[in-house]
């Protein structure tokens, strides 16, 4: 993946996980479950992974409690909600599923975190500037926990989707912004190659597993900065 030309992008093949229809259906069920029994639904990659990312943000000396933070593909909103509970005050979650946004707003209200903003927005559009209000601003921290993975599985021209996502991330960042991306599909080398206009700032470590005599991590989680 030496360049950002679409001919050089790897392809995992399509999956229903890369479709809006899949997520709309999933969140429709989760909205019903939350209304019926108060179940907030699945935390993508698990609560332990989310906690490690948030703990890194808490300990990072470059990030202040009032810095703007955006979660891309925010789902049920739990990343932003947990950040709010830990004292961060300028939080935005964006998702292309209106049902996910509906769920996250309901969960935030129930958790006493109504100050968190959730919006419906398109992360892969080629339209610049992006028309979604929250995607027209700059953030200190841009978060992705599995969203780039899902975009890469899109059955509708995943390569264009990846490049659109890349452009959106860059639009959201200043020279001192941090981009935290966590993936279960991509290796460290693949991520740093695709995000070639970024430099590696840090790496969030997870549990390692052994298979076939080799040791590896369940997830890859990098913190990147735009190259200057």
UniProtKB/TrEMBL annotation:
Function of the molecule: S-adenosyl-L-methionine-dependent protein-lysine N-methyltransferase that methylates elongation factor 1-alpha.
Going by the UniProt record, its keywords in alphabetical order are:
Cytoplasm, Methyltransferase, S-adenosyl-L-methionine, Transferase
Q: Which HAMAP family match?
A: Methyltr_EFM4 (MF_03188)
- Listed name of the protein: Protein-lysine N-methyltransferase DPMN_118694
Organism of provenance: Dreissena polymorpha
Task: Show the GO MF annotations.
Answer: protein-lysine N-methyltransferase activity
For whether the record's keyword set contains Methyltransferase, the answer is: yes
The entry's family comment says:
Belongs to the class I-like SAM-binding methyltransferase superfamily. EFM4 family.
> Which compartments is it annotated to reside in?
Cytoplasm
